[in-house]
Specification:
Serine Threonine Protein Phosphatase 5, Tetratricopeptide repeat; 12 helices; 2 domains; mainly alpha; single chain; rod-shaped
Length: 273
């Protein structure tokens, strides 16, 4: 029984090695026609890396020939399928420029833009690639507003836009973290004005409230009352837009202290009359 298992394993290894050997021979051969044939076989079987190496070799050989359009598209797509998005974008764009009347022009344009989308980094890094991806996707939507890919392109733009919003919001929050409260107020005001529909709006208003709270409660007496009243206005603004805000408990706790201090100011004013 053990002998049969070993024999089976050996035969599998030999099969793989022979296949690899055949593939290596194909790479080293001058038979362009056979390379083209096998490249499509590998591509259709989902073996995109093997297909890509063969397409790379034969693209120059078929340039200007009827098969070139098909080969260049598959070449680009094999990069896309192996997540080599920078190379995929370059080859798709090369395809679009070379074959503007192709029946695959829409797909190629979309996948080129999508390749830029996949190159967008995490929000904490420089966002040059994100802006470029948004631009490419928007160009696609403008060119093909009724495309089957339009909804996905819009969704990707929304995701990229949210990433840009998150980056700006994290910068605005950072001012509060380092206790630069005046800059925190200004930065959060600018953020809300710049991204009025952002999902981070509620938290941005809350962070501004926290910054106002720190300034008001630590103010000199001559400025304290006015700043406490400004804090009341910010509290009312948050509840107007978010009556069930996630930050309700903390807001109410801080406003209890604020209202008590304002009552003392009112009492002092009354007694002085």
């Amino acid at each position: 029984m053990k002998f049969k298992k070993i024999s089976f394993l050996v035969s599998c290894v030999l099969h793989v090695s022979v296949s690899c050997s055949d593939y290596q021979k194909l790479l080293n051969s001058d038979d362009t026609s056979e390379k083209y044939k096998q490249a499509e076989v590998f591509y259709n079987n989902g073996e995109y890396r093997k297909a890509n190496r063969l397409f790379e070799q034969i693209v120059p050989k078929y340039r200007g020939k009827p098969q070139a359009q098909r080969i260049i598209f598959f070449f680009a797509d094999s990069y896309f399928q192996t997540k080599s998005y920078s190379l995929a974008a370059y080859q798709y764009e090369n395809f679009v420029k070379s074959y503007p009347k192709s029946d695959r022009i829409q797909e190629a344009t979309f996948k080129a833009a999508k390749s830029y989308y996949f190159q967008s980094p995490t929000y904490s890094l420089d966002q040059e690639e994100t802006y470029e991806a948004i631009e490419k996707l928007q160009v696609f939507i403008n060119l093909y507003p009724s495309s089957e890919y339009a909804a996905e392109a819009n969704q990707m733009i929304a995701e990229l836009q949210e990433k840009l919003e998150k980056k700006d919001f994290e910068i605005a929050k950072q001012y509060y973290t380092i206790r630069d409260y005046k800059s925190a107020i200004k930065a959060n005001d600018n953020f809300v004005a710049g991204f009025p529909g952002t999902k981070f709006r509620e938290e941005a208003l809350y962070v501004k409230f926290l910054a106002l709270y720190e300034i008001a409660t630590n103010s000199v007496l001559s400025k304290k009352e006015a700043r406490l009243k400004e804090l009341q206005q910010q509290y009312a603004l948050i509840l107007r837009y978010y009556p069930e805000t996630l930050f309700m408990e903390d807001l109410n706790g801080k406003m209890e202290k604020v209202n008590k201090e304002l009552e003392q100011f009112n009492t002092t004013t009354t007694l002085s009359k």
